[in-house]
Amino acid sequence: MRIALYGNYLYELAVALRANTDNDVHLFLDSRTIPACLSEEIPLRDETFVHSEPWVTYREIICPRRAKLTKEFSAFDVILTTDLGPIFAARSGTKYVFIPGGSDLTQWPFPIHSRSTRPHGLRRDILELIIAARLRPAIRSSVSIWTSGPWSPNRLAAGRLGLTLDMFLLQMVDTDLFSPSAGVPRQTDSSESLTIFHPTRIAFESDPRVVEVGGYMGNDILFRGFAQALQRGINARLVLIDRKNSSDTEVAKELIEDLGISDHVEWLRAKTSEGFTWREMVDHYRACDIVASEFSGWTGLISVEAASCGKPVITWVEEDAMERLHPEGHPFVQAKDDEGVCAAISMLADADIRRSIGESSRSWVLAKHERGQVARTCESMLARLGFT
Hints:
Blueprint: E1 2-6, H1 11-18, E2 24-30, E3 50-53, H2 58-62, H3 68-73, E4 78-81, H4 85-89, E5 96-98, H5 103-106, H6 122-140, E6 144-147, H7 152-160, E7 167-168, E8 194-198, H8 208-212, H9 219-231, E9 236-241, H10 249-258, E10 265-268, H11 278-287, E11 290-292, H12 301-308, E12 313-315, H13 319-325, E13 333-334, H14 338-348, H15 351-368, H16 371-384
Parallel strand pairs: 1-2, 1-4, 2-3, 4-5, 5-6, 6-7, 8-9, 8-11, 9-10, 11-12, 12-13
């Protein structure tokens, strides 16, 4: 089966699907938007597999029927697409599945409703209106929509489009790369500082529309809970990432100062403005004791990557959604408010508890999110839709 995939979010899926020699897999990436995390990936150098060009420009968006990407898509049996790919897939004559990565479902189809959540101006607003006019019918025309879960922002956006979500493809991770440190796990005693790594972008504005589109990370919950843990005598430090796309970094620094915890907080910066590579992130995961992910109600890749590295993860995910996806349970340490964060940190100060949860987290990821496993699930889902 000839399968085309479009978008950075689908890189791992493309690599995993390609492992099945019955599949002829081609990945299309816009050369101007490839993130730093992919920069060291060897498969990107294979021109028989990855096709990297400036596929999506203003001209292509305005006239997608004439776009080169549209013509490329027409040669495949099925297209799996994220980002703006549906605009071109819809005009290719090939059936396609939409696998949204976030804003392509929750934000871009609704330029007026989401205007307060993005940069705007006359030219930007006009472009956003054109994108939405192309993207909304393209999403509706897909043979299926596979989100990573029935999270509230996804369900709300789908409802606005008159659609329902009933098929889910879990996020995947390279478990060989994101793996625990070799040898004996790091131990801490009462004289050593417990390291909590929080690599999530800093965005805790409580604007309802930001929350609706999944832009709220709830970092302030972590900061306040961490401060409470310090007051209770927990010896810990919090490691954050200072990145250019974190909208509330300066506000966070002010809050951290007001809470009196600045001496216990370390900010990391990548060597380049593009951010850390996956291999650099693995080193940071391995160097910490606990990972704090987002407190938005849904799982991001940080939670899965950290768990794959054998680290206990403090987060908050919607229980009804997780029950639907994982009725047998999950290993994440739930914390919905600052008191919950404080309690979680206090519990995980025990090295034996950290080790136990970390080991179960790794096992859970291997069973649920390992990219080969998810690729086999994807093939089964395609078969259910008539693609073989």
